[in-house]
């Protein structure tokens, strides 16, 4: 039988057809007027995608590159920072900060938990010299949404502390008021809600953060935000960029403009809600204390490994879901909703999941998950119309 491979992972995500077509076009030289027009359009549309008036800098790297830039450009050796972590990518903030010689005050919670705002507040009140707060808007490894607005309100306790947010799966799936909440650096990546391959990372940068860079003393070379800002003023980049990826990004950002940023976010929210209803109707438990809309993390049933679920989904139906990461491998699986997904995709993956679970011995009735997702979809779209991302 034919089995089409379908990604249901929270990155990489399915590619937008218009972006795929742009990616296959002949290469442009990066020091030409034609390519500078692409750069100008990308920079302006990234601001729209982010929903910010701040500069958005990009690098040819995975999201971790922009995370590293946020550390190396804004701090000096020995600076004290708070890292709020409850998952693999929170741990990455900790590792990056330590690699650059920062003193880390860790606010750590178990996988699956959301970071209590009160815990971050207590850490701020304990130390008078906190220079930054690092956290995730969405912890991709656990499917958890953190209270970005609540943490941002803590700025009044330590006005000098910069707010640095990994929103790699939060952008395009949640309402982040970057300027209203005064978020200083917000990190994004190309292979998530923007529907193109991995290889580009982004960072919106506030004026407070630009000012901090004037006194920050950590070393940096390639991931130098000031250097890239100066190049942007000349409609250029400091170093050779990923030209084809940027042309693909231009097409994806045009699509987001046409669809509307709020509709892209709404699409993820509806699909996440429907998926949660579907998996719970199959007797499964959500792993995340406060679920994010970028993805749904589901606990494997007792006696069944999520590794077996992942393998059967891929082998039997070509549906690639994500296993748990680190200590959660074999315990949870994750289904993505960000970017180029529609309701038919979600119905299909839930139907496949029903059959896989039944084959692995889980007691469930075929159709219950799909029926619950369908019913929820009709409730959510009764007055608003279809949220399809394929408009």
CATH homologous superfamily label of the largest domain: Type I PLP-dependent aspartate aminotransferase-like (Major domain)
What would CATH call the architecture of the largest domain? 3-Layer(aba) Sandwich
Using only C-alpha atoms, the radius of gyration works out to: 21 Å
Helix coverage percent of residues? 40-55%
| Overall number of strands | 15
Most strands sheet: 7 strands, mixed
Query: First CA to last CA: what distance?
Result: 31 Å
Tell the overall outline: globular
Order of strands, widest sheet: 2-10-9-8-5-3-4
The first-level CATH class name of the largest domain: Alpha Beta
Count of helices? Answer: 13
In terms of structural class, how would the helical and strand content be classed?
alpha/beta
- What is the succession of H and E elements? EHHEHEHEHEEEHEEEHHHHEEHEEEHH
Output the CATH topology of the largest domain: Aspartate Aminotransferase, domain 2
Word description of this protein:
- This protein has 391 residues and is of the alpha/beta class.
- The protein folds into two domains: 6-12 and 261-381, Aspartate Aminotransferase, domain 1 (Alpha-Beta Complex); 17-258, Type I PLP-dependent aspartate aminotransferase-like (Major domain) (Aspartate Aminotransferase, domain 2).
- It has 13 helices and 15 strands.
- It has helices spanning 17-23, 33-50, 63-72, 88-99, 117-126, 148-152, 207-213, 225-233, 243-259, 261-281, 306-317, 343-359, 368-381; strands at 6-7, 55-60, 80-85, 103-108, 130-136, 138-139, 144-145, 162-166, 185-189, 200-205, 285-286, 295-299, 319-320, 322-323, 332-336.
- The strands form four sheets. It has a seven-stranded mixed beta sheet with strand order 2-10-9-8-5-3-4, with helices on both faces. It has a four-stranded antiparallel beta sheet with strand order 11-12-15-14, covered by helices on one side. The protein has a two-stranded parallel ribbon with strand order 1-13.
- Strand 14 and strand 15 (332-336) form a beta hairpin.
- Helix 10 (261-281) runs parallel beside helix 12 and helix 12 (343-359) runs antiparallel to helix 13 (368-381).
- The two termini are 31 Å apart.
- Mean pLDDT is 96; it is low at 386-391.
